[in-house]
Structures are given as structure tokens and as C-alpha cells.
UniProtKB/TrEMBL annotation:
It comes from Papaver nudicaule. Component of a multi-subunit COQ enzyme complex. Keywords: FAD, Flavoprotein, Membrane, Mitochondrion, Mitochondrion inner membrane, Monooxygenase, Oxidoreductase, Ubiquinone biosynthesis. It comes from the Eukaryota. It catalyses: a 2-methoxy-6-(all-trans-polyprenyl)phenol + 2 reduced [2Fe-2S]-[ferredoxin] + O2 + 2 H(+) = a 2-methoxy-6-(all-trans-polyprenyl)benzene-1,4-diol + 2 oxidized [2Fe-2S]-[ferredoxin] + H2O; a 4-hydroxy-3-(all-trans-polyprenyl)benzoate + 2 reduced [2Fe-2S]-[ferredoxin] + O2 + 2 H(+) = a 3,4-dihydroxy-5-(all-trans-polyprenyl)benzoate + 2 oxidized [2Fe-2S]-[ferredoxin] + H2O. This is Ubiquinone biosynthesis monooxygenase COQ6, mitochondrial. Belongs to the UbiH/COQ6 family.
Amino acid sequence: MMRVKIDRLYPRYLARKAVANTILKRDFSNEALSREHKLKSGLASNGDQHDIAIVGGGMVGMALACALASTPLTRHLNVAIIDSNPALGRIGGIKKGELPDPRVSAITPATISFFKDVGAWQYIQENRHAIFDKMQVWDYTGLGYTRYNAKGVGKEMLGCVVENKVLHSSLLSCLKDKDFHKTIYPSRLTSMDMLSRPPAKELDGNSCESTLHSRGNSAKLDLSDGNSIYAKLVVGADGGQSRVRELAGIQTTGWKYSQNAVICTVEHTTENLCAWQRFLPSGPIALLPIGDNFSNIVWTMSPTEALDRKTMSEDNFVREVNKALDYGYGPHPKPGLLGKYEEFCWEVPPKVVKVASERMMFPLSLMHAKKYASNHVVLIGDAAHTVHPLAGQGVNLGYEDAAALTKVIADGIAMGTDIGELSLLKKFESERKPANIMMMAILDSFQKAYSIDLGPFNVLRAAAFNAVQRFSPLKKHIVRYATGEQKWPLFT
């Protein structure tokens, strides 16, 4: 009897199943069409809506993300990070014992404090780095020099030299540990549109009220992988050739120097504990400690000389470096040339015995954006300013930008202001623009002063060096400014 009932009911079950499948397929088809329509009309799911889109996941962009994640008023924000660099997917990718990378940064005590505040410093301490408390600067004429000692100016340190890959990896590790809503888009920014009013309603007349409201005052970013995302604030942290700056129509001013820099890692027989810089006729050469008997060379010279030194044999290059840091181009400084010193403590830099990395060469330039902010867009780091590397201040300025922008965003949230509002972003610009211009002017003046090789100018430069060496209050203020403690190079 049961068998008969099953035989009678089974055809009905199959018929109902067929109808259900037809309806299901139709529903899925309609849903797919709806998704396609939403994508075409710019109304994809809420997952593509962000508070902030950071374009550029390098050292400065990641520093901003870490600062936002570490600040009580901003840690709840939904942040997108747009960068096609595969390094963003490799957390903790620094291998113990591998040779140093030639790309390094000399970070200031102010930057170290920033890294400690956001929680990234602990990761730097786990990797190779070199804290230095002494610095010697002199010129090739033998007439002038100055030597800085951290203890002599009431400091524990003057700075720390860290490989860029270590800085970047430390920030990535720090961000991974944060309870922070972030999405990394491994793509490039192709276009950007500002949405000044809510998009149109859907074809069926039903509006996505929350999505429309949130996107009505935001930027639409189209990515190279075909996706589009939305953000209330777009941060251009994408370097000197910034796509954000270009799409926002922000003009720049600046010039190219008739100089290239050659950088590489070199090795000594003993550990280097001092930062050295000598001004030569064609530009400065710096020898920066990076730990484990390694130092970093940053040598500025004419493009022709740079190409020659990049391609010459290793033995010849080592000989040229030691010549540039020792007796070559002129004599050692001596006491009594411009008056008696109370204390003469000039030292010879450690001898280079080997080149431990590839030699890299890049042109030098100065660039400054005419404005840092426009509606829903702000620039930080090299996207806003690039400087001569002679004092190693470039990335430190970028970290100061990241810290200042985080504070401005937090203040805006506290006041209930739209974080993309131009009046809010102008507060960031008014704080950082004058400070950056001042540093750029000082570095550019140094570059131009040492581009002239003429007797009277040589004596004046030497006199300036010696004045700094002999006048302790002046030296202290220079150190305070260079280390980020003092914002202006004036007596305050």
C-alpha cells in the first residue's frame, strides 16, 4: 500500500521540483542582472563603501593606516588601501641574516616616537637597525667641520638608520595586529570622480537610502581590475608621480637638480657607530651605519660621474669611496685654520672594504604641490613634496604628515564634521605646508651653497661650520630642529 502511494506522489514531486528550479534560475538570473545594473550605475554592494581610501601602501601610506588604527576616535573607520605592490601581502617577510637593502632611511627621534605610539617600533627592534648618537660633517677644503654628540646636546640619540623594507614590514605587522576594518585592494587607481549629489534611484523605484546617503558626498574610485569603490576622503600617498594629485588637478612647482645619487650598502671590518657626511665639489657623500659592520652610502654627484661610478668595478668603486671620505679632494680639517678651537675632535671614517649590494642610481629633484587639499582629497608624503636627500629628511616629513592628518581627522570626528570637508582638510594643510616649505628651503640652500667652488665662498662655508662647532646654543637648536623636536629653525 505504501509503495503505491509513493509511486503516485513521485511524479508530482518531480513536477514541483522542476517548477521550483525554473523559479530559482529566474530569480538568480534577475539577481545577476540586478548586480550588473548596480555595477554599471555605480551602486555595488555596501562592501565597496569606505570612510577613507589611502592610495599608496608604501611607508607613508601604511604609517597613516597604523596611526588611524591606533587613535581612539579613528580606529572605527572603514579604510581601503589601494596599491598593486605584492609586498602588502607578505607580512613579516624580512629574513634573518640576509644582506641589507641599499634603500634606507635615517629616521629622527620624532619619527621613532611616532612608531612607538602606533605600536610599530617593537618590530623594528626585532630586525637590523642602527641607532647613532654621533655625527660628523665636514667639507673637502679642510677649513671647516662640525661634530654632533647626542649627550653634548642633552639627547639620548640623534637618529636611527633603518632599511626601507624593514620600516614597511614593521608597519604591515603592526596593522595586522590591530582590530581595524581595512581592505587592501591589490590594484591601481585609474580614474576618480567626485559625487556631489546622491545617485539616481534604482529602476524599480526603490532607493538604497543608506547607500545613497553615504555616497552622495564622496569620491568614486575606479581601479585597474575593473572594480569601483567609494570613499568620503581620498588620501594620496602614492609618491612623487602621484596619480591622485594628477586626477585632482593639483599643480606642482619645483625643478630638477643637475645631480644624481648613487646608493649602495658597503661593509667594514668593524661596526660603524657614527653618521658621516662630507661635502665634495660635486655634492655630498654620506656614510650611514645600519648595523652588523654594514653602512649605507648616499653619494650625490653629476649624472656623468654617477653613471661612471655605478658601472665601474667593485675594487675601483671601493677605492673611490675611501678617497671621497678620507684625503681625496682636499686635506683633513686641522685646528687653528680659522682660529683656535677649545676642543678639536675630528675623526677619520671607518675604511670600506667591500660593496655588499647592488649600486642604484636615481635623479634628484625638488617638487612641491601648490595645495595639499581639495574637496575630499588630501596629499601626504612625496605626493605633496620631494626634497634633496642630503639631510635624509624626506620620509620623516611624510611621517609628520601622517601624524598631523590623523589628528585633524580625529578632531573632525569629535566636532561631527564630514572628514572629506575641504575646510577640515585645510587645517592639515595650514599646519604642514609651512613646515615642509621651511625644510625644503633649508635643504635647497645647502645644495646651492655647495654647488659653488670658489675661494671666498669656501671660506664663508667653513666659517659657518666652525661657528656651529664652537657655539653650543646654536648647535643645540640645529639638533632640535633636525631631530623633529623643534618645528622651526629659530630660537624659541
